[in-house]
Amino acid sequence: MGIVRLDQETQKAELEEFRRMLLSCAAVHRRKDDDGFRGQENAVPAGNGDVLDRLVCVTSGVSYLGIAIVNQLLVNGYSVRIIVDNEEDVEKLREMGNSGEMRLNNSVVEVFMAKLTEVESLTEAFDGCRGVFHTAAFVDPAGLSGYSKAMADIEVNASKNVIKACGLSPSVRNCVLTSSLLTCIWRENPLDETSHIIDHKCWSDESVCLNKKLWYALGKLRAEKAAWDIAKQTGLKLATICPGLITGSKFYERNPTSTIAYLKGAQEMYTYGLLATVDIDKLAKAHVRIFEDMKKTASGRYICFDQVIEREDEVEELARDTGINASSITGGASCSNRPRFELSNAKLTRLMLRTRRCPIE
């Protein structure tokens, strides 16, 4: 079974958003140049390698999250190689390159066609890249929620192939994999546990995901575990980010499959105080920051969220943004009588508060 592509309308919208992002980045760089900062932000310190040290690869770089990560990488002076899986997208992105839209000062956006089903194809795509951001999101039109049980297997195999390819590549030093907060919160009889803190050390129970038919959670859980197993075998330095529901401008319109799939089980998450969201831009910044700090101390898993849905107005806003009835989110539960868990992103918070180092070393 191959990777199921996004529908044409979503693809078109994401490519247009990618174009706007590039133009916006170009405008920012021009303003900095005009203000006399040319070359300062993106300068490579002496003795720290050539331009290839700034080249990184992003899978699904024209997806909702992929675009945001590419944006942050370009702003921070990286050159980015985007992985696409079809010739049509290659041609559309190549047109942007020919028009000069994909060249920002010393930063360059490259497009590479590769199959997430083929390790050899990915290894070739990663050649020369210092790091890889694996952010792939898949769509299954046959799935009730857009993400069926079969998609979990596809996601696992894709992650395995990406990590294997990273391990085989002589240039790749680090990999950042986008997982999900759902890999931490789904457990059997959670209230029987001594600690009610959910942090990066917590793992969901596969049997719970299977019994509740939480296919998105299952796919992310198995994919992350498989990635860690392969990384340990190959010696690849890996970090994983476990974000809450990704929100931001038109997030449901631009990322409907993952949104609906994430919210399966929303009533239970809300009841336990585990329904969390994260802004797309903050999540993208976290990806880049973790990657930059991996050469120092960053490692392991990081939970990423900036809001826990608790108040009635927060529920109504989420319902409004997604078109889901508020009652489908709360199930009639109130904030006053529900058992409480505490989500902790302290590990990521500490990292983000550190003085930012130069990304090139």
Q: Explain this structure to me?
A:
By secondary structure, the protein is α/β, with parallel strands linked by helices. 46% of the residues lie in helices and 15% in strands. The protein is built from 15 helices and 13 strands. An eight-stranded mixed sheet has the order 3-4-2-1-5-6-8-11, with helices on both faces. A three-stranded mixed sheet has the order 9-10-12. Strand 5, helix 5 and strand 6 form a beta-alpha-beta unit. Helix 2 packs across helix 12, helix 4 packs across helix 5 and helix 5 runs parallel beside helix 8. It is globular, with a radius of gyration of 20 Å. The chain starts with 7 loop residues before the first helix and ends in an 8-residue tail after the last helix. The relative contact order is 0.12. The N terminus is likely disordered. Belongs to the 3-beta-HSD family. Keywords: NADP, Oxidoreductase. Pfam families: 3Beta_HSD. GO terms for molecular function: oxidoreductase activity, acting on the CH-OH group of donors, NAD or NADP as acceptor. One of its GO terms (biological process) is steroid biosynthetic process.
Largest sheet: 8 strands, mixed
Helix content: 40-55%
Helix and strand content put the structural class at alpha/beta
Widest β-sheet, arrangement of strands = 3-4-2-1-5-6-8-11
Can you give the mean pLDDT? 82
Please report which band the strand proportion falls in: under 5%, 5-15%, 15-25%, 25-35%, 35-45% or over 45%.
5-15%
Parts with pLDDT < 50 across at least 5 consecutive residues: 1-6, 29-49
The best one-word shape is globular
Distance between the termini: 41 Å
Gyration radius over CA: 20 Å
Helix and strand succession? HEHEHEEHEHEHEHHEEHHHEHEEHHEH
Work out the number of β strands: 13
Number of helices: 15
